[in-house]
Amino acid sequence: MKLTPLAPPPYKIKAVEPIYCPSREERLRSIAAAGYNTFLLPSNEVYLDLLTDSGTGAMSDYQWAGLMEGDEAYAGSVNFAHLEEAVHDIMGYRCVVPTHQGRGAEHILSKLLIKPGHYIPGNMYFTTTRLHQELAGGMFVDVIIDEAYQAQNEHPFKGNVDLEKLAYLVQSVGKEKIPYVNLQACVNMAGGQPFSMENLCTLREFCSRHEIKIILDATRVVENAHFIKTREKGYQNRSILSLMREICSLTDGCTMSAKKDALVNIGGFLALRDAELYEEAKALVVIYEGLHTYGGLAGRDLEAMARGLYEATTDDAIVAHRVQQVHYLGERLSQFDVPLVRPFGGHAIFIDAKRFLAHLAQDQFPAEALAAEIYTESGVRTMERGIVSAGRDPKTGDHYYPALELVRLTLPRRVYTQEHLDYTAEHIEHLFKRRDLIKGLRMIYEPKYLRFFQARFEPLT
Ligand code: F0G
Fold it and tell me: Is the pLDDT of residue 76 over 90?
């Protein structure tokens, strides 16, 4: 694969944070002490942290300046008004409930709309989203197109909803049992794959006809807008801001983990169009997060979030460079024939662990084992996104066996340089050459919920 040169970033560096690469012996000790789960590594034992793009980005000087303008009043902080204004201006939603992060919004949304026996269709599950749906008594139903499960398939919009699957669900259970469609932008577990505007318009038409709401998971909606601009015919000359407005106008509300595309270290919100639902959401947020004008956040966090939302959506170069960095890493790895999910998505490169470690069965946790090996090889921390993340079926207690068994190399926003990406690619190449020697794992501790965070393993002998 030809390497596309990476254009210089649209920012310069004003503050630096020293990092240290532990020796191989230290890394071997650290990963064993962490039970071969990269989530359990202390970050000072990590050289490059590609675990997640969640809350790990670098804020701009304008956002940092906003921290000093935090109005820490318990009620009615001016920073909340700024956030409301930003969400209304950029996304068109009038009602905003701040939450400490994305899952806080998912919790409130699920309590608000899901009753026991409900079905919630979505374009592939996300871990916290599905768990909140299940805890509210609902059942997630996957309605993403089949191409999303084919790691090699080059479909440009693998995040699309399959309208036939959705229609079949509506026909089988009845629209009364479907409170909303959960539409995720840049589908995380599929590899950061976007939906197209065309697909969203068709979905809107279908849902309006059946009186079903669409709730957007807007966590990576800026990246989704970028892919519509660059991949979908007719949108090349549109600004990210105008695409954001159009996407959101076709939905009834959103949950947002602002730790991603809104460029902050902490924060989230639930946004709604319906004023009655908003009243109910306000009643719930005071129980679980905090008053409806702070939602578990400090005034300064609300300010950074409002500024981050504007920054991410008014300077199109920011998201363009971010996605180019991801693609550069993907192209470097492809030069070494490392098997990857195609096409490259918005926030991360996903290694296809089923093909990388073809000698391991899925219940030997190939992606978990590969993430541990990558750390031992290089000090680079990545994340498992396979059978461990998928968890167990609450009815049968069996593992879910997801079609995709992946290791995610996630790029924090505005943090690493091209040299860091080259280092990562070269070390994974070394590992790929000796992949036959990598052993599987056995799970020796399994927490009840979201097991991938805290599960512990040992190598199979
Ligand atoms: N929705 C999506 C698509 C996400 O990727 C995440 C978080 C959430 C919701 C929940 O948001 O973490 O703020 O509570 N994803 C992180 C990740 C954890 O690493 O992919 P949160």
Answer: yes
Q: Which residues, 6+ apart, have CB-to-CB distance to 183 below 8 Å?
A: 122, 123, 161, 195, 200, 203, 214, 215, 216, 217, 251
Give residue-wise pLDDT tens across range 203-249. 999 999 999 999 999 999 999 999 999 999 999 999 999 999 999 99
Pairwise CA distance, residues 365 & 36, whole Å? 11
List pLDDT tens digits, range 131-151.
999 999 999 999 999 999 999
Q: How far is the CA of 220 from the centre of ligand 1 (A)?
A: 9
Residues with CB under 6 A from ligand 1: 52, 54, 101-103, 126, 128-129, 184, 188, 217, 219, 257, 259, 268
pLDDT for the residue 255: 98
Q: Which residue has the tokens 């190939």?
A: 366
Asked if 273 is an active-site residue, the reply is no
List the residue whose alpha carbon is closest to atom 15 of ligand 1.
54
Select which of 38, 52, 99, 127 is catalytic: 127
pTM above 0.90, yes or no: yes
The domain made up of 61-315 has a fold known as: Aspartate Aminotransferase; domain 2 (3.40.640)
217 is catalytic: yes
Protein residue with its CA nearest to atom 19 in ligand 1: 52
What is the 456 CA–ligand 1 centroid distance (Å)? 22
Closest Cα to atom 11, ligand 1: which residue? 102
In the set 27, 130, 385, 414, the catalytic residue is 385
- Residue 74 contacts residue 318 (beta carbons within 8 Å): no
* 453 is known as an active-site residue: no
Domain boundaries, the chain: 24-53+317-459, 61-315
Mean pLDDT of 371-390: 97
Residues 6+ apart with CB under 8 A from 140: 119, 120, 121, 122, 125, 129, 130, 133, 134, 182
Q: How sure is the predictor about 461, in pLDDT bands with cuts at 50, 70 and 90? A: confident
Residues 398-412 have pLDDT tens digits of: 999 999 999 999 999
The DSSP bridge pattern shows strands 456-459 and 441-445 to be antiparallel
Topology of domain 24-53+317-459 in CATH is: Aspartate Aminotransferase, domain 1 (3.90.1150)
Separation of 48 CA from ligand 1 center, angstroms?
20
